[in-house]
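Tokens as discussed.
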């Protein structure tokens, strides 16, 4: 009997990696198919975790949990409604001005190609690349922006999800502080291990808010169109390590170039670089304290993977989702490690 049990356990250990891979494939396919449903939920969770420190700060000041939740919900609804209206108007205005931008891009490319021809540079092959035509360039840009903002298409659902998540997080936190949750509860284990995730999300959101505010002020001073929309995108892209800054830089630089010339575009580039450098090298290290225990290679792979699964929102959620999976793996491995020794004795 003991041999049979040992053999079955050995077979389980051999089959387990294959079962795990099959489960990952099925889950990934399901997430990719349900991306339009998952994206608002994941975005609401990201926003709720980002806003949660506001409730915690109020409770530390002596404000009752109920009052802190109500005040935070009011702020979320007002800010979310205002942002939704502004983004909606910006997208509508952007759609109206697309023909103008397309003609400006055409003139800009024509001037650049004529300049190269005058310098004796052969550009015949470049002219044949239809992918770089002004119409396609504008189409690519709008497709990327619409993919990013599409998660806010049902803003009411996102706001309600944020409200409910804030209430649930606050109730669970209060129960945990009072010791009302079982010690073996997943909520307790994941809550303890999830401090790094909450810290990363809240600090990234705070530094993103600083960066977005400074960027909006700069764009307003320079007279670049849609400054709030570009500031909001810089806030979201702050969650994309390394490349997020460069992605958020492209639209305002192009608009500055089309509307006011190369001087404005250069000022936007310099201003964004200085703002980002100050926040990343001065403000963020003081708040973060230490870097995440996630390698650069893993971050890059997660960016590619989650972007493929969930689209533009996947790139924004890549690091939080990777940290969450890492924490879940640590939690699920703990019971196995602790129960390995007794089970071997039972077989004997």
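Sequence:
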């Amino acid at each position: 009997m003991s041999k049979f049990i040992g053999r079955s356990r050995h077979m389980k250990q051999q089959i387990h990696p294959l079962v795990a891979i099959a489960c990952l494939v099925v889950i990934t396919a399901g997430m990719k198919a349900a991306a339009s449903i998952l994206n608002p939920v994941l975005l609401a969770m990201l926003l709720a975790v980002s806003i949660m420190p506001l409730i915690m700060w109020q409770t530390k000041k002596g404000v009752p949990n109920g009052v802190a939740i109500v005040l935070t919900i009011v702020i979320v609804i007002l800010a979310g409604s205002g942002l939704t209206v502004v983004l909606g108007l910006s997208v509508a205005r952007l759609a109206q001005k697309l023909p103008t931008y397309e003609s400006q891009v055409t003139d800009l490319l024509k001037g650049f190609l004529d300049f190269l021809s005058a310098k004796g540079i052969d550009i015949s092959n470049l002219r044949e690349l239809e992918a770089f035509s002004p119409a396609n360039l504008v189409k690519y840009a709008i497709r990327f922006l619409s993919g990013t903002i599409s998660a806010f298409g049902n803003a009411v659902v996102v706001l309600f999800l944020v409200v409910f998540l804030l209430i649930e997080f606050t109730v669970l936190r209060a129960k945990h502080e009072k010791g009302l949750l079982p010690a073996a509860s997943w909520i307790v284990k994941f809550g303890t291990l999830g401090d790094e995730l909450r810290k990363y999300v809240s600090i990234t959101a705070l530094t993103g808010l600083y960066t977005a505010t400074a960027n909006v002020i700069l764009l307003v001073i320079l007279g670049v169109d849609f400054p709030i929309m570009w500031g909001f995108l810089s806030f979201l892209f702050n969650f994309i390590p390394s490349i997020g800054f460069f992605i958020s830089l492209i639209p305002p630089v192009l608009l500055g170039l089309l509307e006011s010339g190369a001087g404005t575009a250069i000022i936007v580039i310099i201003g964004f670089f200085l703002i980002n450098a100050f926040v990343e090298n001065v403000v963020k290290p003081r708040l973060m304290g230490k870097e995440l225990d996630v390698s650069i290679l893993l971050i890059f792979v997660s960016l590619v993977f989650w972007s493929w699964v969930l689209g533009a929102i996947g790139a924004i959620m890549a690091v939080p989702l990777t940290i969450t999976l890492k924490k879940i793996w640590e939690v699920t491995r703990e019971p196995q490690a602790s129960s390995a020794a007794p089970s071997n004795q039972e077989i004997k």
